[in-house]
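Summary: Need help interpreting a holo structure output

Steps to reproduce:
1. Submit the protein chain below together with the SMILES for fe (ii) ion.
2. Request a joint structure prediction with the ligand placed.
3. Inspect the structure token block that comes back.

Expected: a single structure record containing both the chain and the bound molecule.
Actual: see attached output.

Input attached:
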Amino acid sequence: MEEKRKKLEWEESYSVQVKEIDDQHKKLFATINELIDSIYEQTTKEHLNGIIDSLIIYKRFHFATEERYFKEFNYSGAQDHINKHNMFNEKLDAIQKEFGADTVTFAFKLVDFLEDWLIQHLMTVDQQYVPCFKEHGLK
Ligand SMILES: [Fe+2]
Ligand SMILES: [Fe+2]
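--- attached output ---
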């Protein structure tokens, strides 16, 4: 097999300066890294499904955390941000439906999508709530 795919590494620039949320983002990174590892461990569809299920459960919990603060703080960017979360949910559902016979190809595709989306989301959309969350005393 070609060179092993690089795992996601946390960078300080991803921080939203709120420990609870940074920890959740790190946990999402860890789950994606588990997915990357699984590709090289001759994964089975069942094993992969287990990781994907835990990812789905955890991202649901994570989005709910952010959205709860939006509501609590009357965050002006809430609706746009919630739309982005919903778009992610739809995209992930669509990708999951493609989960066919070729487990490895599917896993790579999924990792590409998750990595692109998560990092992009962390660095742009999530950063936008930082002033609001700080103003309300989160840290
Ligand atoms: Fe978000
Ligand atoms: Fe987030």
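--- end attachment ---

Reviewer comment: The chain has five helices and no strands. The two ends are 44 Å apart (CA to CA).
Status: needs-info
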